Amino acid sequence: MRGYNAVFECQTAGSVLDRYVEGRELYYRLESYLKGVATAVYEEAGDLPDGSIVGFYNERWDLWNHAAKRNRGLLRYFERHWITREMAKPKEGANRSDICEVVDLHMKLWVSTVFEPLKGRLNRAGQEHGIKAKGIDGESE
Known about the structure:
By secondary structure, the protein is mostly helical. The protein has one domain (35-138). Helices cover 76% and strands 3% of the residues. It is built from five helices and two strands. It has a two-stranded antiparallel sheet with strand order 1-2. Strand 1 and strand 2 (94-95) form a beta hairpin. Helix 3 (50-74) runs antiparallel to helix 5. It starts with a helix and ends in a 12-residue tail after the last helix. The model has no long low-confidence stretch (mean pLDDT 81).
């Protein structure tokens, strides 16, 4: 419910400047929260033996994808108005790369925080046990 309230407050702020500040704060809070969750997944995976890491990774990947879709639905209005407008604003001659859509933000953080650091272990475990981690080689679900 707090997510709905934060989006509502962001979009109904009095002035354009207030909406801009609220939108930026909401976006960075979302990014910070997702980074924390992804970091927790990575740290939890660090304690697992190679034999069970692929199953753990696949389970968490499915949950992460589901959360990305749910958050996109929750933040649809915010994405359609604030994020789209921010992405269209030029930043040093090119489109902004620090702002992206909600699902893309989820995937960017997953890859940089969980997948890349675990890629070697996932590949080794997959070869040893004959199972493949989801998301490798374009397989997303």
